[in-house]
């Protein structure tokens, strides 16, 4: 999926900006968003996107942190017509989608 865009709020829609800008994501959520904008990812892959640059590899409960961030991101992305879906089950993949797809 190409990175979704929205009309620019600064120039009253004359240009476009990445949808993540309009969602006001935290820096950590932006890492997740950027990873999902490229392709679907597993929780482990999102943990790597989030904590891969840390020497300790992130917290032991990183899977729960990712789950909670995705839940918050869904609320922030919904007004922009975007959502994050999961295939569910073992090895589930999260994917960024337009609402209605």
What is the secondary structure topology, with strand pairs?
Blueprint: E1 5-7, E2 16-18, H1 19-23, H2 27-38, E3 41-42, H3 43-51, H4 62-77, E4 82-86, E5 93-98
Antiparallel strand pairs: 1-2, 3-5, 4-5
Keywords:
about 100 residues; alpha+beta; Arc Repressor Mutant, subunit A; three-stranded antiparallel sheet; two-stranded antiparallel ribbon; 5 strands; about 20% strand
Describe the protein.
The protein is of the alpha+beta class and 101 residues long. Helix content is 42%, strand content 19%. It has a 3-stranded antiparallel β-sheet. Strands 1-2 form a two-stranded antiparallel ribbon. Strand 1 and strand 2 form a beta hairpin. Helix 3 packs across helix 4. The radius of gyration is 14 Å and the shape is globular. The protein starts with a strand and ends with a strand. The model has no long low-confidence stretch (mean pLDDT 82).
């Amino acid at each position: 999926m190409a990175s979704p865009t929205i009309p620019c709020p600064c120039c009253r829609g004359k240009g476009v900006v990445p949808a993540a800008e309009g969602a006001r994501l935290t820096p950590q959520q932006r890492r997740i968003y950027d990873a999902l904008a490229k392709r679907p990812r597993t929780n482990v892959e999102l943990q790597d996107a989030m904590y891969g640059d840390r020497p300790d590899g992130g917290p032991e409960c990183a899977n729960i942190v990712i789950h909670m961030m995705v839940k918050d991101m869904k609320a922030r992305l919904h007004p922009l017509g975007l959502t994050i879906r999961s295939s569910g089950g073992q090895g589930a993949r999260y994917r960024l989608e337009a609402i209605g797809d």
